[in-house]
């Protein structure tokens, strides 16, 4: 891990100002390719005999800075950035898995991830058993001989349950499979899954890390501590036909996975991040700490206000003393619990749709982690494709409204919700 404190590393890690003519900002290298010194240099680069840039699908100097910075902030040995959070996940999975393999996953998942596991990966012969993550032993109970990884979100979206990361990583370690954690909602400022035993961390950079709602992006970060030589991962211990007989585990040691994610994952699946989006993400990352502190304090204040509101049936925010995840929040997220709140109005499903419809500051859209406040009614939108049982398993109740609390003034946010609550009680017709 970087020896610098978080906010310092977020501003400086990975960028050497003595290179590139002293540019203080990280420049955008908007290029697809790089001129080789000569034929021998080209041959060496392609043969991985010397490091360097070949083609932007594989590596790029702007993306490089972002990768080094994210690895420093998460305490990993390396990172690969991708075109979206979803492609970070699919790239990591397809580098590790093949037809016939099995995943044990938490059932508290982002809607897109649930569909990937439940519908799309089975078409490739990769199946998933979903478990209630609140008991770490459930992962091992559901594990099969062909299980190759455990997966969960550190702070489930939209259930807002907090994982017992240490408990689940101990189960994964005993079963000799990597534990992959999607850490999008807490961000590396609030939580470092690797410090609690995770092997690989996934981010959607689209959310809090970029933070301004302008750019999609994703990242895979490798702790570099999983032992790929146990026999469960022959792709790491046998010569790779895709790389002229390279044996990843022997040649690359702790960097075997993250190297494979780049030289096979990006090469063959192609989900490279645009250098322009990397630049945008770097701008956001520089201010992550101050933003996430404000997101967290605003969300806690708003959750407390909602909890005391007579029209509100229930509120779920891990920072509330009433939350069943409060003890885990104190253990894993002591600096703040990020910006997502879910709640139900006493008016139920119909009220939920009205709230999502009528707020003015809270924008109705399918994203989280923007500096601007956002709102959605998952049951009728992001989780619409799931049946009732699946909705309940992922924590999507019919009346659930999800807020992504921005960094506006808290009084304006309360006033925006209050106006809608008042209108639900005594509708104003215009
Ligand atoms: C948004 C999100 C994703 C997917 O990321 P994209 O950048 O939209 O592809 C994955 N996991 C979580 C927790 C998310 O919130």
UniProtKB/TrEMBL annotation:
The keyword Cytoplasm does not apply. GO terms for molecular function: cysteine synthase activity; O-acetylhomoserine aminocarboxypropyltransferase activity; pyridoxal phosphate binding. GO terms for cellular component: cytoplasm. SUPFAM superfamilies: PLP-dependent transferases. Its cofactor is pyridoxal 5'-phosphate. Keywords: Pyridoxal phosphate, Transferase. It comes from the Bacteria. The modification N6-(pyridoxal phosphate)lysine is found at residue 207. The keyword Transferase applies. One of its GO terms (biological process) is transsulfuration. InterPro entries: Cys/Met-Metab_PyrdxlP-dep_enz, OAc-hSer/O-AcSer_sulfhydrylase, PyrdxlP-dep_Trfase, PyrdxlP-dep_Trfase_major, PyrdxlP-dep_Trfase_small. Belongs to the trans-sulfuration enzymes family. PANTHER family: HOMOCYSTEINE/CYSTEINE SYNTHASE, HOMOCYSTEINE_CYSTEINE SYNTHASE. This is O-acetylhomoserine aminocarboxypropyltransferase. It comes from Flavobacterium rivuli WB 3.3-2 = DSM 21788.
